[in-house]
Amino acid sequence: MHEAHLDSHPVNCPYCDMPFDLLIDISQGSHETWEDCPYCCSPIQLRVMVSVSGELEGLALGRDDEVL
After folding, report:
1. What are the CB-based long-range contacts (under 8 Å, 24+) for 2-10?
2. pLDDT tens-digit readout, 2-40
3. Phi, psi at residue 58, to the nearest 5°?
4. What's the CA gap between 49 and 22, in Å, rounded?
């Protein structure tokens, strides 16, 4: 992970709806991963969409039982 590729995004937990800043490593390109909510510790499914030029195109968050 390279700090120059970290992008901070304000999001809300899909479980407890608490807002927090999520750091996304865009150097990995488009990918899916999991992150625990810093408040309720629930597992959040993340889909990160990065363009060919390396720009963040989109971010989808979901509960562990949702299909993204």
Report:
1. 2/27, 7/56, 9/56, 9/59
2. 556 688 999 999 999 999 999 998 888 999 999 999 999
3. -170, 160
4. 15
- CB within 8 Å of 54: residues ≥ 6 apart: 26, 27
Q: CB burial class (10 A; 0-12, 13-18, 19+) of residue 59?
A: middle
Angle 9-11-12 from CA coordinates, rounded to 5°: 170
50, exposed or middle or buried, with CB in 10 Å at 0-12, 13-18, 19+? buried
Classify residue 48 as exposed, middle or buried by CB count within 10 Å of its CB (0-12, 13-18, 19+). buried
Tell me the domain boundaries of the chain: 3-62
First to last CA, the chain: 24
